[in-house]
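Here comes an entry:

___
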Amino acid sequence: MSSKRFCSMASRRFGYVLIGLFFFGILCCRREPSTRNMEKQEPPYKAWLSEPPADCPFPKSSDITGIAFTGRHTRYSNADTWYPSWAENGNLYSPWTDGSVNNVTSTSIGPQATTGYATIIGDDPLHLQITDVGVYAGNPAPYGGRYPCGSLVCNGVWYYGTYGLMDSDGDPRKGLNWDILGPFVGFRYSTDFGKTWHDTPHTPSQPLFGEPNKPGGIVKIGSPHFVDFGKNMQYSPDGNAYLVGQGATDPDPKPRDANLSWITGDQIFMARVAPSIENINDRSKYEFFCGQDASGQPIWSHDFSRIKPVVDWNNNTGCVTMTYNAPLKKYLLVITDGGNTISRFNTYILESANITGPWKLVVYMHNFGEQGYFVNIPSKFTSPDGCTAWLCYAANFTNTGDLHTGYLDNPPGGGYGMTLQEFKLLSDQGGSQASANLAKAK
């Protein structure tokens, strides 16, 4: 056989092989994508159906019209009450309690009550490191429990607040859970990120804001939380730290079981202070929101007796947090109504261009969690365009202990601990900075 003929036959055979490989590739492409490729794809959105009650006082937002969960989530620790604050050094610092973190245990009940603290390192919510874990003792007497609330790290100082709770039947593990909200006590502080602490000069019987007038009485600034203005409070409108907390009026026109508790209330109130070691435990340095003047501008006063709510919805408020979304130029107010303290909970998100409102409804999430609570939006994990963020919360604490309620983790991935759920903010139309960013993100 000549070399030319051999080469010609080889070329034809090689061509047949190439053609065969081509059709084989087409057939292979029609198969289901591999697991490796599926893992690289972005999870599908799942918009949460907004179901506000008929008496909802907030108009629907036309800028941010809902949220959708991406399916990306994680959960850390076996403790709740996480409120991360973004410090100038890039780390997050948070309280926690009623569980264990890195084999350190905190329980906020009884005379030996403690509250935990921790440093959270990392930029990816799915791969964080929790370190420098510790606990601090604080007697709740004359109350039964003393729990963490407002936590802020600003200019290298960590301010850590606590509040008192009572249980009407004497045992928060049975029946209703801590169904009477006690006083906001005050702030301890640390100048070395939690290595050492200086206690608050206030006590549960002599609290910072002088309320309630007796154990079991009504409070306005109950379980307050600092507004999250971003890294080292960089987006505070005036350099002040702002606090939001749930409260109620006395007499209440329509009280319910557990009317004002750690997770229920009727109204949301606001205070502000220039953050410093000298100011943080001095009531005279605080200003309180007292409504609006004839032109709609907020009124602030040092007189606590003049305080008025920024949100008023009887039997529909509770634990509250607020985050400023800088790219969208929007304040996001997150409120959880905890029913009777052991039922399924409802969480809703409001938005406004102003820190005192007026507020519009983004989404009302019926049975979020299904028992989600201590819900907040850590600003550190907000995307540069403001359209993607993460919810931080705990859920379904009554599934354990004596109650065994069997609530579902909804959305999936929740549960008792520090849950982080990625979500998208949605918009149907343009007009504002928020709408423009959200439309571009689509």
